[in-house]
């Protein structure tokens, strides 16, 4: 039952107990334990998307609630985020497994003033898994960084992420700049992040707001197909 550190062995837990445990371990920022639990789920035949959603994303949701309520603070949340990333890195190659030709190219980044990147990373991984080539330009991106990346990589889609009500308006700065430079029509612009909604997406001039990574994939596929069909029709 015990391992070298005198902790109990995660493998002795059944699936439901292990899910509870990984939520606790995420909450407590215990990266090695979260990584081990992720591996155990996979060994037990869980699909990577189920491990991601039931174990990691749900655990992070609980962290978010207690962060909001002042029970957890930035240092603890950083540790939780780090633990989450440990699990995500194990899942990354599995989520991104695809032998097919890229179905499109995406540049994605978190907007200026915002350093949240877990959701963005997840969206990037899921897009890769769906066959997109993804260029991730990281966090805290001013409009110039987006423009440089668009110029350099010539993607089909620009994805922007914002997790703060104070940073989400920056998406409009980026989209307005694209309009000023007559570049807006060249790209499908998708936006996402917890505080956004459909209305906001429309208000800033994005093509779509994506509630989560799965919706981002569906939307990216649908809008690329529509754009290509329209181009063929001309
Ligand atoms: Co911050 N934080 N945080 N934080 N943080 C939130 C966002 C907050 C809601 C917490 C709360 O109060 N409940 C709150 C924002 C409140 C608001 O603006 N209304 C908040 C705050 C206030 C802050 C600070 C200001 C705290 C402080 O310093 N006092 C500070 C700001 C720093 C900054 O950015 N300048 C801050 C800092 C941090 C940490 C650094 C500690 C850490 C980030 C670590 C990291 O990302 N590397 C952190 C975290 C982890 C969170 C919470 C707890 C979790 C976010 C997360 O990773 N969720 C968050 C609470 C919450 O959201 N419940 C919170 C999991 C992730 C899978 O979901 O990111 O929503 P999400 O992504 C989803 C969708 O939104 C969507 O798909 C993803 C996957 O399904 N999506 C996209 C996201 N981006 C997309 C892009 C797309 C498409 C879909 O493009 C096409």
Percentage of residues in strands: 5-15%
Broad structural category: alpha/beta
Bound molecules: CO-5-methoxybenzimidazolylcobamide
Q: Largest beta sheet: what is the strand line-up? A: 2-1-3-4-5
Most strands sheet: 5 strands, parallel
Radius of gyration: 19 Å
In round numbers, the mean pLDDT is: 92
Instruction: List low-pLDDT spans.
Output: 1-6
Helical percent range? 55-70%
- Shape summary: globular
Number of helix segments? 9
N-to-C SSE string, H for helix and E for strand: HHHHEHEHEHEHEH
Distance between the termini: 67 Å
Count of strand segments: 5
List the helices and strands and how they pair.
Elements: H1 15-27, H2 31-43, H3 48-68, H4 74-95, E1 104-110, H5 118-129, E2 132-136, H6 143-153, E3 157-161, H7 170-180, E4 188-192, H8 198-204, E5 208-210, H9 213-233
Parallel strand pairs: 1-2, 1-3, 3-4, 4-5
Helix pairs in contact: 1-2, 1-3, 2-3, 2-4, 3-4, 4-5, 5-9
This protein binds CO-5-methoxybenzimidazolylcobamide (B1M).
The site of CO-5-methoxybenzimidazolylcobamide has 37 residues, from helix 3, helix 4, helix 5, strand 3 and strand 4.
